[in-house]
């Protein structure tokens, strides 16, 4: 009996040392994987409405942030950014080597429409939300007879660059005998654009270049080509 007890007592220190060794290996492995001495070298931010400083402040990340604070936390950081600012629709965080990239998709207001004496705001997916009145931040839609056309126009508008979105005041569904899907677009700069709903998104990107070459205010016709003429010329 004493012999068995003696063997058991001798094994206990060996098991303890093995456990300590395994724990030490785990700690060393953890330190090597996290590498707490490494920091972010650069932060790349892709955002059209928020400044780089705003985004960095919201997520608490800069060029001196320890790398271990980000590894495995990308989705959590993106969620925090969305919660911080109502202008953020979604965010994607990616980490490559010592560089973190943050892509921000803004919660674009696609415009306003009045239905049965009630104003609604459209978001980037053309979903409606009641508002008291337009705030001037996005265009007013009018004369749309069905939700499908309105949805397509609003979603297309939401994908434009900020500078172009800010230059559009009204989007009017204005069908003719020759073009049943014609849009009449009133620009903030004083011009009027005629476009076709189907190609609205593809052709409006050329507007700025065409408008810059116009000697006076007028019409930019993007229905079946791309040309302009002064008011009163036709």
From TrEMBL:
**Major localization class:** membrane
What Gene3D superfamilies does the record point to?
3.40.50.10960
Localization (cell): Cell membrane
GO biological process terms, semicolon-separated? FtsZ-dependent cytokinesis
Q: Which InterPro entries match?
A: DivIB (IPR026580), FtsQ_DivIB (IPR050487)
Q: Keywords on this record?
A: Cell cycle, Cell division, Cell membrane, Membrane, Transmembrane, Transmembrane helix
- Per UniProt, what is the membrane topology? Single-pass type II membrane protein
Classify the source by domain of life: Bacteria
Q: Which residues form the signal peptide?
A: none
Any single GO CC term annotated in Swiss-Prot or TrEMBL for this entry = plasma membrane
Tell me, in a sentence or two, what this protein's role is: Cell division protein that may be involved in stabilizing or promoting the assembly of the division complex.
User: What family is it from?
Assistant: Belongs to the FtsQ/DivIB family. DivIB subfamily.
Give the protein's recorded name. Answer: Cell division protein DivIB
Q: Which gene encodes it?
A: divIB
